[in-house]
Amino acid sequence: MWAGVVLFTLLSLLIADKLPWLAAWPNELVLPLVDLLNAFMTWFIEWFGWFFKGLGWLLGWPITAMQWVLHGSPWPITIGIAVIVAHKGGGWRLAAFTAASMFYMLVVGYWQESMNTLSLVAISVPLSIAVGFGFGVLAFRSAHARRVIMPSLDLLQTVPVFAYLIPILLLFGFGTVVGLVASLLYAFPPMVRNTVLGLERVPSEAIESGLMAGASERQLFWQVRVPSASRQILLGVNQTTMAALSMVIIASIIGGTADIGWEVLSTIRKATFGESLLAGIVIALIAMVMDRVTRGFATQEVDLHAAERPFAERHAHLIAAGILVAAVAALVSFAPFLLHYPKDWTFYPAQPMNDAIFYIVVEYKDVITYIKQVSFFYVMLPLRIGLESTVRPSTWGFDPGAVHAIGYALLVCLLAFLAGRATSVKAAMAVLLAGMIYYFGLTNIPWPALFAIFVGLAWSSGGPRLAAGVLIGLGYLLLAGIWDLAVLSLYLCGIAVIASFAIGSAFGILAAHDDRVSAFIRPINDTLQTMPQFVPLIPILMIFKIGDFTALLAIMAYAIVPAVRYSEHALRSLPVEVVEAAKAMGCNRWQLLWQVKIPMALPEMMLGLNQTIMYGISMLVIAALVGTKDLGQQVYIGLGDGDFGVGMVAGIGMAVIAIVADRITQAWSAGKRAELGMA
What we know:
Elements: H1 2-15, H2 20-23, H3 33-72, H4 75-90, H5 92-108, H6 111-141, H7 143-158, H8 161-172, H9 176-200, H10 204-212, H11 217-228, H12 230-246, H13 248-255, H14 260-269, H15 273-299, H16 311-314, H17 316-331, H18 350-363, H19 365-385, H20 387-390, H21 402-422, H22 425-440, H23 447-462, H24 464-479, H25 483-513, H26 515-530, H27 537-544, H28 548-572, H29 576-584, H30 589-618, H31 620-623, H32 631-641, H33 644-675
Helix pairs in contact: 1-22, 1-23, 3-6, 3-8, 3-9, 3-33, 4-5, 4-15, 4-17, 5-15, 6-7, 6-9, 6-12, 7-9, 7-33, 8-9, 8-32, 8-33, 9-12, 9-13, 10-11, 12-15, 13-14, 14-15, 15-18, 15-26, 19-22, 21-22, 23-24, 23-33, 24-33, 25-26, 25-28, 25-30, 26-28, 27-28, 28-30, 30-33, 32-33
């Protein structure tokens, strides 16, 4: 099959000049999806806009009330209650980390903005949990409902957030409620998935015991199924909380609230690194605290003897909170600083950070320029427009001729032969395809050849059904008229994903074999994953300026984390007996790593690749801010113009790419697990 794909790709390249429709899909065959979607949205707003305006007015009240509570409470009470909850969820170490995080918000001067953010999260998280739990129960009880709900969740989680901000903006208008609705749509899918998973995994023995005890259907659900699934459901609460918080910056774009997200966004628009980093750290700290607290409650063992303990011991945390509130209320009149933290006590080290970036830009200008030029002219540009169009005296130092083309072809054939000898025929075919893409450029490969490559990959990974699904997805990109933009997205995201997976896996392998490296990398991963996606753009933009290389680095900064984590987890989770058996056979350290550990860990590491792809695609819209021209930019244009059709067509296109990558990597991983007897 792969030999056929290689020959078909080569044939398509040779005859593309004679058949123009191979290079570019005719405009007259493009479906008018943009106009149809805009017409539908106009009709929908005309008939149902009043309902969403009323709903927005209703949802605004709880946010206002929560803001009033958080702003009206003295800061020691807010910090103290947060610390008490953290101690309940994770002990003294988590309580100390929570206290330090809250004091950071206070000392840096972002207390008011942080409270506005928490008020939005405090409403959106319970709402997302309730909606997610309801849909999860519906999907568990009804197979018909599940067939609708699960694909819808895939779409919500893969369509860029900016794309469905457009209809929310058109229906609800500007304001805080828009951020609440956006957070709800983005955050409830993890709750649905974990609810379904938890309810499905309830042991049959527990169900039979409930039936034998005479439980009704309602009692069986609430007193048997839900308690048995509580740990998985609480993990859904954890993921929903993190997803809602990650929407803070995005919601600020259309919410206009004076929260920490708006602070990050405004400092980014001014390209001030120090200010944006200090504000971004606030969001990262809130995310880390919420993650650890909710995860702590999710993994706690149930105390079966709690009812036998004294009242004071059972409710110690509640009593401590009451004492704290009473003590602070009594002291506020004597110590006014407990109510409003004095501005003179704040510490705001933004300027030294800006000076540090400026120093790097000035002192290492030549090094920065060299790195950018080498990466762009030797890797990125050839993959985009082809080696034959890139090699020039100004870039590579010579003019290409027939001798160079023949030499390149012979080199690729030699590498393919060596790859086939060392591994398999598939590896040889992969080298030949990579050689053609590097020489002609991804944007110059005819669309039927790319169809053949991706459909063949899907067929070999998951069979004809997956291949048919991939064919339909690629057909949408072609018929919607966004094929060229999709290829540009594939080019930029592909390079970022390959580089992130290679570098991240190397660090993950190192961390799996050295606890000190693991301890050092873990907080860096936490910060990269919880820091707003916009923040890493600022130092990269200041150092490397606008362009594809800057976008590449921004995507990598966000997408590298799953590769590190999955690689480390996969290697640390290998069966001990297999490793011991390999050692007993005389494997040295390198043989043990490359011939035993990595082959067995590869299926799970491929799930890390899956997540790296997802993270990379989600960053394409953010990367559009630094000059890229792909589907991400189309989504951003749609949001800026309020054009529902343009934004949604491009957003669905990005979702198609994400779903295709997800299904292929998942299928490959499952097949590899079965092959290794790990299914």
